């Protein structure tokens, strides 16, 4: 393609739209946001004025020949229809997570994108962040030997504590699995490879949530415990909860034959990647009276070594995935890292939590994907 800067249209002008408008152009120079749309035109006009872009309807945005990429930042239920609409209008798509709310919808998106020769990429693009790339490199370099197991925990009180309009997070397509699961599972899959089989239990702690001036009926499960088996033999567990208080459980760690990898929260990306080598801990334990008791103390964790970053921290919170796709469109080299194949696999796994909880049976994944190319 001749263009060096691609035109972007943002569909959905809610709480998170600024994360994209503020990065695609200002930080990632291969993109420029030209227009935005929303079913609430007042909201679209407000955002357009703030960022000095055009406010229009979604139909107008998708008919604009200057726009190459549609970035969809609406609630989960509209991701599938808007992605299909954008593809049918000839646009490449970067869509917020989850990709869709049924496996059939993800298959239809993949089929249409392949037929049209267009890219679909999906959040989370946090897998491209400096912290996640550092964790991936540590694993690929063999710093913890052969990976054996992974533990992931997002345990907290729920979306009404942080979101200005959280109702959609308690409706179909919401809940802690669909909302927070993508960060953890995408990071795990991009580091370890695809999931083969899983099992989960689910519960709902509160039927109604008081939200600002009204009460929201909770239509989805809000507390999940699951076990996972990856294709490479790694076994894992994940707890995702909107029903809890704080937890002292580790957020994200991978145990290996030679050590353990401590990984920061794959959503907020705060903190450092650390390795605690098995031998280093063993020597410290053996050199101490009551060494085994000490091993379980917080002090023993201080032996973990902070790893140098594999790539420098990225200036923007979001936008890396769309910019990475823009590079592929411009260069004609066809491998966007936040690919629709990963998103389809992750969406199937997210939906499988409730399938397992309902059937009481393990779920064998029907989709797979390859790990994305590393950034480092
Ligand atoms: N808010 C966050 O911190 C955050 C962080 C990461 C990801 N996300 C994801 O971003 C997406 C949007 O979240 P948000 O927090 O901005 O939600 P929001 O409710 O604040 O905004 C969504 C906007 O989309 C508009 N909309 C809904 N359906 C539409 C349609 N068919 N066409 C055009 N516009 C439509 C709504 O009117 C609203 O303005 C969700 O998928 C969410 O999971 C949000």
Would you give an account of this structure?
By secondary structure, the chain is an alpha/beta fold. It has two domains: 6-126 and 317-338, Rossmann fold (3-Layer(aba) Sandwich), CATH 3.40.50; 127-314 and 350-358, Dihydrodipicolinate Reductase, domain 2. The protein has helices at 17-21, 41-51, 58-63, 79-88, 103-116, 130-140, 175-192, 278-286, 291-295, 298-301, 320-331, 340-359; strands spanning 6-11, 31-37, 54-55, 69-72, 92-95, 120-122, 147-155, 195-203, 208-211, 214-217, 223-230, 235-241, 252-256, 259-262, 274-277, 305-306, 363-364. A nine-stranded mixed beta sheet has the order 16-15-14-13-7-12-11-8-17. The chain has a six-stranded parallel beta sheet with strand order 3-2-1-4-5-6, with helices on both faces. Strand 1, helix 1 and strand 2 form a beta-alpha-beta unit. It is globular and about 70 Å long. The structure holds nicotinamide-adenine-dinucleotide. Nicotinamide-adenine-dinucleotide (NAD) is lined by residues 11-17, 37-40, 43, 58, 73-76, 78, 82, 96-97, 163, 165, 168, 179.
